[in-house]
Structure prediction request, 426 residues.
Amino acid sequence: MGMNQTPAAERLHIAFFGKRNSGKSSIINAVTGQNLAIVSDVLGTTTDPVYKTMELLPVGPVMLIDTPGIDDDGELGALRVRKSYQVLNKTDVAILVVDGQKGLAAEDEKLIQRFQEKKIPYLVAFNKSDLLSKDGGVPVGAENVLLTGIKPDLHLMEKSTRPENRYIWVSAKEKTNIWELKEQIAALGVKEENPKRIVADLLEPSDLVILVIPIDKAAPKGRLILPQQQTIRDILDADAVSVVVKENELKNTLSVLGKKPKLVITDSQVFGKVSADTPSDIMLTSFSILFARYKGNLDTLVRGVSALDQIRDGDRILIAEGCTHHRQCDDIGTVKLPRWIENYTGAKPEYVFTSGTEFPEDLTPYRMIIHCGGCMLNEREMKYRIVCAQEQGIPITNYGTLIAHLNGILKRSLAPFPQIAQGLAL
Prediction:
């Protein structure tokens, strides 16, 4: 998979924070070597988080995020600051850019505290080091830089770039220590090789897997959607064999294959038909359930689905999608799910729909949350949403788990994962 095809959800998310005019955008441009961010002398030029996918050596494929100033004022400013804080939910590595002439402000200290609370690896980059005097003295007006406990001595700058030190003096203008800053970002961003697999750990070499993919008007023209591509790749990595069919071809394919498949994986929307067509001695699951397990959330989502059995007229259900690909998702999220829920419960709940980066901070108005598979969200963001629901005591499940439950086949679809199926009242 080329760099441009690396899924956003799999990229390292590096976010730059700081007060207005601390030089965030200039630092991003220096780090990337290209003018990606808006640079201006006007305070608060960045009004929304700006996302850029790129290859950043020595890190690899990354998502860079430039955020609005954390000291913005007024009603609109407060909204921008909130947007900056929301970026923390998906940040893998945080860079706090501070004006080196002014030192850490209260807003900076507050943000550092949030990094620590959320266990986000971070660096504090003191910018504008070119304005500090060469003999290590403090220029007029920069006395409070010493409050940081780091003497702004340019002779000591090399020592301040060691990985165990969270502080680094840089100059976007002179490109001083920019290479060292990138090295430190890389050191903080090194992820252990993800031991989790989508499906490969369930397979032996030469095992046969059938993937059932409906091609209807909601399917993207001329291609497969991301979870389907990633699953096929994972099957290939396991030296197993994948056969891809439409739902109407499954029965015939099973009869002519001459070899019993180890597993059938289906799109959730055709779960009922596929279950009926797949003999009971063949394991069956869905892409949605596989991805919930891959992101470490499956047991929570399975527990959350039982809330559906208590839904009554007027209960509010939040249906949340991680992407804004309306043509693909709207049909299931806003049309099919409500219809299936009402057929199953006999109730008339009230639905609230969100998509993309929108996700309510206050979840207490909802009786339950039904989330999409989250293939466009990185693991940190998906886990954040689930933790929000858990902390507020609101059951959360996802499309695939819910659809399996509606079809009475959840227990069957969890057969590949007995440790999750055990002890759950299904």
Observations:
- Residues 38-46, 134-164 have pLDDT under 50 and may be disordered.
